[in-house]
Amino acid sequence: MKSRKVIAALAIAAVGVGLLAGCSSSSDASAKDGKVYLTVAPVLPGATADALKALSDRVKEFEKANPDIIVKPIEYQWTGTTFAAELAGGTLPDVFNVPFTDSKTLANNGQLADITADFRKTSTAGKWNKNVLDVATGKDGKIYGIPWGPYAMALSYNREIFTKAGLDPDKPPTTLDEIEADAKTIAEKVPGTAGYMQMTSGNTGGWELATLTNSLGGRFETIGKDGKVTVKTDNPQTKQALAWLAKLRWDDNAMGSNFLFDWSGINQAFASGQVAMYMSGSDVIGSLMQANGFDQTKYGVTTFPLSDSSDAGILSGGNVDVVNVKDSPAQIAAAVKWIDFYRTQPTVDKAAAIKNAQTLKAGNQAVNAPTLPVFDKATWQQNQSWIAPYDNIPTANLKPFTDGIFDQQIVPEPSAHTQDLYGALDSVVQAVLTKKNVDVDAQLKAVDQKIQALVDADQG
Amino acid sequence: MLTRAELTEQAAATGRAAVSRPAAERVRPRRTPITWVRRGGLSKLVFTLPLLVVFGVFSWWPIARSVVMSFQRTNLVTAPLFVGWQNFEYVFHDPIFWVAVRNTGWFALLALVFGYPLPLVLAVIMSEVRRLKGLFSVLAYLPVVMPPVVSVLLWKFFYDARAEGVFNTILGWAGIPPQPWIQSTVAAMPSLVLQATWAAAGGTIIIYLAALTSVAPELYDAAEVDGAGIWGKIWHVTLPQLRGILFITLILQIIGTAQVFLQPFLFTNGGPVDSTTTILLLVYRYAFTNSLGGNYGAATALSLMLAVFLALMSVLYFRLTRRWSDA
Amino acid sequence: MTTTRTAHMSTDRTIISETDWKRPAVRIPTTVLHVVLLLLLIVVGLLPLLWLAKSAITPTQDTLQHPMALFPNGFAWANLAHAWNDVHIGTYFVNTIWVTVGEWAVQLIVATTGGYALAVLKPAYAKVISGLVLATLFVPAVVLLVPLYLTILHPPLVGTSLLNTYWAVWLPAGASAFNVLLVMRFFQGLPTEVFEAAETDGAGPFRLFWSIVLPMSRPILGVVSVFGISAAWADFLWPMLVLPNQQIQPLSVRLPAIASQTDLGVYLAALAIASLIPVVIFLCFQRTFLRGGGLGGAVKG
């Protein structure tokens, strides 16, 4: 009896496996019917039904214009702590995004497809700002990806909570001291809410600490004339940044009571009203609406304050859409067409921009999430004016940021072993937020030693 | 793992006594492929094949590979390079390694303190229940039925450190101020162990309950004749009778806690400040969390050390039970 | 009452005897202890589940601000619909069942055929193989994480990566030395006379396996199944590594992945649905479960 059941189960299992094998192999081959199949990754896990609808409309539009390409969008979110497994596993889709910090290394390691030829065919190939395109250029001078959505770090805040705490949401803080004062007020007036919080986990702690350090005029890594990278997180500005956090946490008790946040974790905490102000990319409202269903009328954003130091600058970053190294030439061509359609055209072509904005608006997705220009300020401003009629985030809410950002000096992320460095600094930030009177100097020195060893191993 | 199988040997020994295997004494004809098939060689091979393939590919080969890999530098792109003991040196020089060893030990110790005596006490009390015994068992077993991931995620919310958190609200009723739970370097590990104990205790209780019913009633009767009271019976009959099972659950628990991953990974990702980074979590980090490619050498070197430790534990256990069953 | 209790007693008694029980000094504190224990078990075993059920249908802000209040602002039944339709809990539940059934089947096949070959057919190489299998008992699967992962990426013979196929979780589960040795020992304990009689009747090794050995080994197959199914159900790290395609992930992998991108109310509803099904199955078959758990102890002991 039992054994018969076993056999039956096995038979079912065998059929299931057959089906499964059938499914999994269909996506990687371009093929039999002369069509090119393309898996793309523009959806965050947990995307709302509205977001999926908006995306599906965009896909249909693309497929209509390119009847020989079949696009299959899947969920994907680059995180420093999960990407390697996907890379090693060869399970990445045909088109996926990596941050500015990683694209060059991946390209130089031969892990990305060379898209130079197809990239040259796009209408905007000659228009790119060399500095921006550089992040996607390998040391062989070839192009390995298309940058999009460059952002500057910014201070996001919940306008509703500001009002509740008796603060004016149209006058967000403009210095670190003001952030501290407002955070303290909020923590006192709105119990259970963290006045200010930043990320601490999954390499984001180091990322945000880098932002603070830059804003005070410091740098984690310096490159000598001989090209040698020196890691020095044990610098006055970083210590000043950590002291500022310690003060907010221990003197003002303005950072709430939960201290283990990664990128999506803090987004959720912010969206559910547990955090009033936090530091993130200027475009984060896009994700807040897509994945957390956050009401954008409550959203406010301002530039992250810089100190008076002449070296003070705002950390910026962005994404590069890259193509799977295993793809066929036909797939690479299709992939570049898709990236151009999905990412680039809406920034330069009026019709595409308007079409994109309409779709996003219909799907209740962020139309005017603030980003930095990929080409130049004039193109960017023109683009903003095209989509203005469809803006669905009140422009007044974004004004503190958009007014100030062009006065801020842009600083790129540290270039050597960025994610290792960020990961090592997570612990330091966590220490400051969970333990009183931490020996910050010793911890930073240990980080320097560890990362410098990795850097030297590469160079030596 | 080992422990269970070793015990099955004892269990099977009972059946084995009655059996004598004749096969070995048969006269062997000359060996040719045809006689081999006719003598059942082929069917023997067919029946062994699933085991050979599955163990070969998914056990023996990875074990051999892990030994080799721990002496190599591999990035999956270029050919692996032999680097001698470098991976081990790397692990030993990583300050986090010692932290992880300490944390794993701390987890194991706390798990013993929280989770080892409690199920025994509860099981002994429950075994005396005269009405609704089934209800007691069902209630105790409910947490075990919940998928472990679900229960961790649920507890993660319970551990919300705001005053509005679930546990902090309950503490508030008793006038106790909000606790940081997993947000503090001191409280994080005990909080993880508390959840792990909650999730596992029911299973252990059921095992003890079964063991308690198998204690021969005559032993209690005899103890009563000797004038033993309730405590006397527990001390002189129950505990000695449960000695075997108690020891097994102890070893199983140590082996299990040495591999703890789920709780630190989902609750805290090793934080705050690596206060919950365990050995297996460190293996995972070495191998899988660097966005530009893992340090597979260090990961396998560390795994190998963990495996050696677990093997030693198992051998120790093996020897002790041998000695006991001989005695 | 009294009669059943005495009848019960004659077969199996516990620490406290009937005579002890008649003494109020024993009966009263023990009864109090039992009531306290019952309350404790209700609080610890049942309340978390009830809380989850309540929060699954409570608006997010209520759960965040007043987690222990009972529906201060009414219900949010929509959470359940969202969890089912948007989070697709049903799909992942089916995936979980697939993972479990497959692991269970592979484990049974490898253990029974292998155990039969090693214990009954006894080829010349049986000793060597049992030795090698025994040796792997010392190596828990998790420490093989990396080499096993690389084996899944480039499996010998097959040629294509097994990543994102259920084989990647099923097949390694079969390499359980515990199962093989357990079954092997059991087969060795079966009476040889039966095998000899079957051979005289002209039964070949396949008939012997199918019609005689398997039907006789139901108890041990039950034990292997209990362990196999509960391990498969709980597995997290391994499927997370080898099933990165979210469409085929089991619940254990999917739920943590969406934790911070899902509205809390909907998320708790998803957790509730994910626990409801096993809890209901447990309540329906509680005897089997509890006996299985105890059996685990019996086997372990």
TrEMBL record, chain A:
Gene3D superfamilies: Periplasmic binding protein-like II. Residues 1-31 form the signal peptide. PROSITE patterns: PROKAR_LIPOPROTEIN (PS51257). The keyword Calcium does not apply. InterPro entries: Bact_solute-bd_prot1, SBP. Keywords: Signal. PANTHER family: ARABINOSE-BINDING PROTEIN-RELATED, SUGAR-BINDING LIPOPROTEIN. This is Extracellular solute-binding protein. It comes from Gryllotalpicola koreensis.
UniProtKB/TrEMBL annotation, chain B:
Residues 101-317 form the ABC transmembrane type-1 domain. The chain crosses the membrane at residues 45-63, 106-126, 138-158, 192-211, 242-262, 296-318. The keyword Membrane applies. Residues 1-24 are annotated as: Disordered. PROSITE patterns: ABC_TM1. It is a multi-pass membrane protein. Keywords: Cell membrane, Membrane, Transmembrane, Transmembrane helix, Transport. It is found in: Cell membrane. Pfam families: BPD_transp_1. PANTHER family: ABC TRANSPORTER PERMEASE PROTEIN, DIACETYLCHITOBIOSE UPTAKE SYSTEM PERMEASE PROTEIN NGCF. Belongs to the binding-protein-dependent transport system permease family. This is Sugar ABC transporter permease.
Automatic annotation (TrEMBL), chain C:
It comes from the Bacteria. The keyword Transferase does not apply. The chain crosses the membrane at residues 32-53, 104-121, 128-153, 165-187, 208-234, 264-285. SUPFAM superfamilies: MetI-like. Gene3D superfamilies: MetI-like. The keyword Membrane applies. Residues 93-285 form the ABC transmembrane type-1 domain. It is found in: Cell membrane. It is a multi-pass membrane protein. Keywords: Cell membrane, Membrane, Transmembrane, Transmembrane helix, Transport. Belongs to the binding-protein-dependent transport system permease family. This is Carbohydrate ABC transporter permease.
